[in-house]
Every structure is written in structure tokens, then in C-alpha cells.
Design goal:
12 strands, 8 helices, 301 residues, eight-stranded mixed beta sheet, 26% helix, Rossmann fold, two-stranded antiparallel sheet, single chain, alpha/beta
Amino acid sequence: MRRSRTGIGGTSHVNSRFYLSLMPEVTRLSMRLLHTARFATTVAQPRQLPREGPPEVAFVGRSNSGKSTAINTLCERKRLAFASRTPGRTQALNFFTLGPGETTAAFLVDTPGYGYAKVPLGVKSGWDSLAGPYLKGRHCLKGVVMTLDIRREVTAADAAMLEWIDPSVGLLVLLTKSDKLGHEQRLKVRRSVLASLTATFPGRGIEVITFSAPNRLGLDETRARIERWLATPEAVPETAFESTPDGNREPDPEGDTEGDTEGDTEVDTGVDTGVDTGVDTGVDTGVDTGTGAGSGAPAPP
């Protein structure tokens, strides 16, 4: 069996093709789908949203939580999503198409960062008028991935953001930057976050995964979860789901609204078998049969 010595810290690892052959089929399928990600459109106003159709998965997170890095790592891209030069200023939704060739099988949606203290009130109100209602009323939204810096506690802003999400929509919490803590500390924080969110949102299924872009921790589990959410319809031509004429087909110049300044934007794409293999993905399996979120949810910012 051929081996390579290009892993992190010089540790040898098996050839990537052999490694992929060992993955569950659902994980390999999600990797193939996520690897097709490309920019679709930027939406600054509700009327610019693409019409409902293929399934969507949205990414949400506080400014500087590592959201852009998580998206780029999952899609094996360096600049698909990127951090704003001024955290919290841009309040647009960025849509990324998933699907082979010129087809659209699904969308990833990058929402504005929230919780940045220096954002003006006018910008904060923009979250109420676009991102919040999108999370609450988008029928084709199948799942939401929330990024939380593992070194920070769950805040009131995080809880307020989760109030926007319909209980029928899947929820996955990524504890980003997990390489900053040791294995035992990661397990402890994961249990604490899961307990906190379960107590705040009783009866709702919430999955918490420890995640690190540089160490590729939690990568396969996250891809598998996203693929299960998106595994529905056949791909259709991209043009069938373009936004209205008012929509912007160019990338938002400010990019993602998070200011990820903690050095996590460089993605190591080597496969490292030295990654922590502890099972940190406990799942609260409670099932909520509610049909909608309460109205007038408070704004996260």
C-alpha cells in the first residue's frame, strides 16, 4: 500500500484514494456534491431571493466564529466564502450552487454574521428584514449549520438567532477552532453546549460536532449530515433558479460578514490520520413536531 509523508507535522498517512474508499458511501457522496460549489448570486433584499426549488442549507454564526473557513473547508475551496474587511457591516445572503456541470441540485447559503458590538443600529435592523425572515419562512430550507467558537459560551445573541429557525428545520452546531483545546476539554465543552441548547430549546433534535479546519476534525461527520439534508431531488438547469432581475450575480465585495481574524483561514487539504478520532458528535434525538417558529423573534445583532 502506497503511503505519503505530506501530512500535518510530517506524519505519514495513507494515500487519499485509499482513505476515501474506507469512508461511508454517504460521506463520499456529500464530498462530491460539496466539491461542486460555486457562486450563484448575492441577495440584498427579500425580492431578490431565488424562487423556491432545490433544497438549501444555510450557515449562520457570530462574527469571527470561523464560518467562512468552515464553508471553504467543507467545499475544499480557499475563497468560496470570505470574511468581510469590516465585521458585521454587510448584511447580504450569498448563495452557492451545488450540482454537476451547469445543473443545480441544491444551494448553500451564507448568512450575515451577527453579534458584532460595533455594528450600527441601521445595519442590525437589516438582519431583521432579510436573514431572519429567510431562516423563518424559507420552505426549501432543510438544515442550518451554526458555527460557534469552542472557546466562547453560548450567548443571548446565539439563542436569539436560533429563535428564527423553524423547529422542523434540521440544526447542526459546529464548535469551530477545536484544535485550540485538548481532547478532554473539547468533550467537556461539547457536552455543556448540547445541554445548554437542549434546555433552551427542549424537544428539538440538535447535533453538536467539534470542528477544526486546520486539523480537519469533524469534517466527514459534517459533510455526511449536510448530504442527508440535501439528498432529495434531481438536478435541474442552473438558469431555472436565478434570482429576479434585481438580484446580483456578482460576489458581494465584502464577502462573508464575519471577521475571522484568528488565523483559521488557511485550509490544509492533506488527509491526516493523526486527527483526534474521539467520538465528539453526540446527538440529542428529541423530535419536535411543531410546525413553525414563534413570530417576532428578537434580532441576534
